[in-house]
DNA sequence: AAAACTTTGTTTATCCACTAGACTAACAAG
DNA sequence: CTTGTTAGTCTAGTGGATAAACAAAGTTTT
């Protein structure tokens, strides 16, 4: 927990902090007794008892039967109540919409997916409402019901949750947060797709133990989500991680962004497809995508395999830059390109092993996404869950 | 203030936090009355009075005469006692050693500089001791005396303060922290030169108001210090900011680091000198440096001016990458190359203005160092000061 | 099986720091 | 001099943490 600028410190803050401490302990290590919580957090037994009672009242935890004795009275085991509420996470892609209903532990209870091509905002909005409605209907009965909605979008989101620019959707200055909050009267979080993916991996995926994780969302373009010191870094205005437009070739080819030699001109899905087209790898077929190339590689087509290896190498170049910049514990490659792990990994790790500074390579993991297509949806769900739990920790207002 | 992992929350924490709040308020806005501190922090008048008494006892603040009345009793003005103690900051360069004695507000009271070439570790250590001794002798009488020593070094420092590698000094696995702590029995902080410079600018220089600052230390090599969300980001092991070895030319020239096309092969002082040598800009002179080139440019030598412009352009390429990565409020160019501001600035800002994403350019400042050669020394001094003050906030141990 | 010991969880008394508001001090304006 | 205003201190009250006593429910020893 962190304290904002002009926050004064008083009893409420202390209680809120300790309540979080106890809940986190139970959430991570359940089943666990009050006594164990006390000794492991350093809090007094009495304090723990009282906070546990608060949490029981809120239905955030519950008691199960007695546990094993260790030579004395048998402890009452406490469990985190993952189904005290549910949250909706939406991955709003360029040509797909994926919605999940998740419990408070990130277990996916229900899932809806739709694919489309070049739809208007109105049509996408309708699809979005439909998806949310269906997921809400699918939620089991629970003490807190649906606690929030999160949406990950392929674009620039400012700190107020407004979508400033989503080039591939042709959206500009769109306040989806307000639209959804008014319609559903629930807390809504809008986040960039790469940021959300990073958070998803941190909370529920490959990055659970790490404090410094860089998530490379490699799809049509490349975006990067930064988990630094355990929390998402968003920059001054929320525009961090636009590393797809990092120059890796001075005075290279022009990019539509205005820059030259951008990383995503070398290592994105689009770059791969463009190169394949130039090679004339599908002489008859004008319209092909990543999965077609994947099939070809699986059939042993050497041209296709070399294309992937080349792309893996270029991915490695940018990841090298990432490593030198951030000294992370972990780099996770996610989004659509992660599906080609088999054909990218070798050349990618080769590039890094040969060219990254040696001292950066200790304790460094380079992984492909564990959550596969769910990273973003689970990430925004995680934001909602965290928001909900932090509200639960706050003292209730007493009306007089 | 931030709370560590297993810290429990109790009244000590509350008091510590509020004491910091009050001290910071006085430090930033003095002269200020107790009443104003109370209303501006949101704390109760009584609480402020009691905390102010603590601070007075510690000599960290003092009372001056009464201020202006605003229609009632005249307030007693409180002032931060910048000379309650002094700290020593050392910038240990590749061929120079700069030491300063600073008060708690970063005012330089005394200064010592030495230049050398290729000295052994033992010789540098002797010089370092000599400098520290002289600065300590120069410190005025004060309640807390010398409160710490900070050293900035051109190399990789791990989180424990050990210098793992300083290639230009030919140092490896050197625990200077232990050496100094044993000799002087004072808290010692060892930090990478770029990190220190970034912090110096944040605390006392161009970056005072900003929370996200990237400090580009451009000298023989290029290192980068990252101030993210108001505090220094050091990465998993303390190796962040090695952006001099960021690839900006895929498969470009080999760098001694093992990588190819590194930024510092294009934009560092060394790169500038190498290009000048190739051009034969000084036909007779074999050994020249940055200041010689500067003189030439000032004389209107077109070759030299073009060299600087080229370098500024290359600096811009890397800074572009930095902007897209971090979305900072401010980028500060420091170290030796900052002395050539006049000849670098135009091409540098041109490159950024033309090629950085438009939305990144709002509220973005690109500055050259305000503290000039003192950034690093003041930065490590700032670490010492902060460390001292945070210890002052902690409750005293009562012996029974 | 009784006694002794252990461990769990609750209760009680105490402490500490903050808050509200009364109170005192010092000044300005009429 | 009176009234009103602002500054700073003091006192009583409150909330939450802690330590220690206590009660409950086991296990181990004799």
Order of helices and strands of chain A: HEHHEEEEEHEEEEHEHEEEHHHHEHEH
Mean pLDDT across all amino acids of chain A: 93
> For the terminal residues of chain A, how far apart are their CA atoms?
30 Å
CATH homologous superfamily assignment of the largest domain in chain A: ATPase, nucleotide binding domain
Oligomeric organization of the protein chains? homodimer
Helix/strand-derived category of chain A reads alpha/beta
Give me the number of helical elements of chain A: 12
Count of DSSP strands of chain A: 16
Radius of gyration of chain A: 23 Å
CATH class label of the largest domain in chain A:
Alpha Beta
User: What is the second-level CATH architecture of the largest domain in chain A?
Assistant: 2-Layer Sandwich
Domains of chain A (count): 3
CATH topology of the largest domain in chain A: Nucleotidyltransferase, domain 5
Largest sheet of chain A: 5 strands, mixed
Which pair of chains forms the biggest interface, and how many residues does each contribute? A-B, 67 and 67 residues
Strand content of chain A: 15-25%
Q: Helicity range of the residues of chain A?
A: 40-55%
Morphology call of chain A = globular
| Low-pLDDT sequence parts of chain A | 1-5
Strand order of the largest sheet of chain A: 6-5-4-7-11
């Amino acid at each position: 927990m962190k304290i904002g600028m002009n926050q004064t410190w008083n009893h409420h803050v202390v209680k809120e902090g300790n309540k979080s401490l106890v809940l986190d302990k139970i959430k991570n290590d359940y089943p666990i007794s009050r006594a164990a919580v006390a000794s492991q957090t350093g809090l007094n037994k009495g304090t723990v008892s009282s906070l546990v009672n608060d949490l029981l009242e809120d239905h955030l935890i519950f008691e199960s039967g007695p546990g094993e004795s260790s030579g004395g009275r048998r402890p009452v085991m406490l469990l985190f109540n993952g189904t005290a509420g549910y949250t909706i996470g939406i991955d709003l892609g360029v040509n797909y919409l994926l919605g999940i209903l998740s419990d408070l532990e990130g277990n996916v209870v229900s899932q809806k997916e739709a694919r489309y091509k070049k739809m208007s905002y109105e049509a996408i909005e309708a699809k979005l409402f439909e998806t949310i409605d269906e997921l809400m209907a699918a939620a089991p009965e629970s003490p807190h019901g649906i606690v929030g909605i999160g949406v990950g979008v392929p674009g620039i989101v400012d700190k107020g949750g407004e979508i400033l620019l989503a080039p591939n959707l042709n959206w500009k200055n769109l306040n989806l947060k307000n639209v959804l909050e008014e319609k559903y009267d629930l807390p809504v979080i809008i986040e960039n797709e790469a940021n959300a993916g990073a958070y998803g991996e941190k909370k529920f995926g490959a990055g659970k133990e790490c404090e410094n994780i860089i998530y490379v969302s490699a799809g049509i373009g490349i975006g990067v989500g930064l988990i630094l010191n355990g929390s998402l870094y968003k920059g001054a205005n929320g525009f961090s991680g636009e590393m797809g437009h990092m120059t890796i070739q001075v005075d290279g080819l022009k990019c539509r962004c205005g820059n030259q030699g951008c990383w995503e001109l070398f290592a994105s899905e689009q770059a791969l497809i463009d190169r394949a087209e130039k090679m004339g790898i599908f002489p008859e077929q004008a319209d092909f995508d990543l999965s077609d190339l994947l099939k070809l590689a699986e059939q042993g087509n050497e041209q296709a395999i070399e294309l992937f290896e080349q792309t893996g190498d270029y991915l490695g170049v940018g990841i090298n830059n990432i490593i030198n910049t951030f000294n992370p514990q972990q780099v996770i490659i996610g989004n659509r390109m992660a599906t080609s792990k088999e054909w990218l990994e070798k050349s990618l790790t080769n590039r890094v092993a040969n060219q990254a500074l040696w001292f950066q390579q200790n304790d460094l993991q380079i992984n492909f996404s564990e959550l596969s297509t769910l990273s973003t949806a689970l990430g925004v769900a995680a934001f909602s869950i965290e928001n909900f739990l932090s509200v639960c920790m706050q003292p209730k207002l007493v009306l007089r």
